[in-house]
Amino acid sequence: MISAMPELRIAFLGDVVGSPGRRAVAHAWPKLRDLHGVHALIVNGENARNGSGCSADNYRELRRAGADAVTLGDHVYKDRAIAEVLEDPMHPIARPANLSLSAPGKRITQLDLSDKLSPELRRRPIYVLTVLGRLYMPLLANSPFEAVDRELAAISEKDAMVIVEIHAEATSEKQALAWHCLERWSADAGPKVVAVVGTHTHVQTADARILEHRLAAMTDLGMSGPHRSVIGRDVNATLNAMVKQGPAALDVADGDNRACGAIIRLDLDHRRAIGIELLNIGVPNEIGA
Ligand SMILES: [Fe+2]
Ligand SMILES: [Fe+2]
Prior knowledge:
Elements: E1 7-13, H1 18-35, E2 40-44, H2 56-64, E3 69-71, H3 82-87, E4 93-94, E5 109-110, E6 126-132, H4 144-153, E7 161-167, H5 171-184, E8 192-199, E9 209-211, E10 215-218, E11 225-226, H6 235-242, E12 257-267, E13 272-282, H7 285-288
Parallel strand pairs: 1-2, 2-3, 3-4, 6-7, 7-8, 8-10
Antiparallel strand pairs: 1-12, 5-6, 9-10, 11-12, 12-13
């Protein structure tokens, strides 16, 4: 008799921008769960608070919408009150791991799957961490490569699976981290990195692939939020700032609201990725315009 390989499907949605982005997550999760067979959800919430930062309320809203873990990026501390949530071990939310060790907040977090999955599907601990790139980024950070190595080495469960996010501008840095993780963290003897996905540019890339039959990689998940925009901001305000170089409040746009990201398919027996599929889910106008 052939028994089915236990497969865990995790969706990861890129930068959630403002209230349209939060609504896009709430719209997407039931579809991911019921139509795509997704078991768990990770979201990058660095722009959830009106386009910049993530408030404690935004974090809770994303959790209620279905997120099992939330990551942040270069806007990590724009809402200072998030530090308390970041420090609380009960909340699955992580700040970039390659800031100072003194910076507030967890550098890695485990997905909270206790209520969602059967014991069979949650027998491996699943972690997520994010690191900032260093090329063309406004927030200075330490080496993302060394930070990943440090955090992986500190995981005590040898059967853990880790999803690494690189929040960065440069595609080269993102691809390099994927190859680094494949070389350094795909051995059977310890925790394994099973996916390296990028965020921050707000534009989804078409390069999703499985490296060496083991590790899912994608340069950028794209944005969850209004796409009738310039990377989430109001078109007219952005043109006023860029074309006329006039003063402009870069408000969050609305229109063409979508949840973008990927579904990562994991083989739990061998702790490897077996698929990565793009997600680009439109939100009907009456819900998310
Ligand atoms: Fe960012
Ligand atoms: Fe962002």
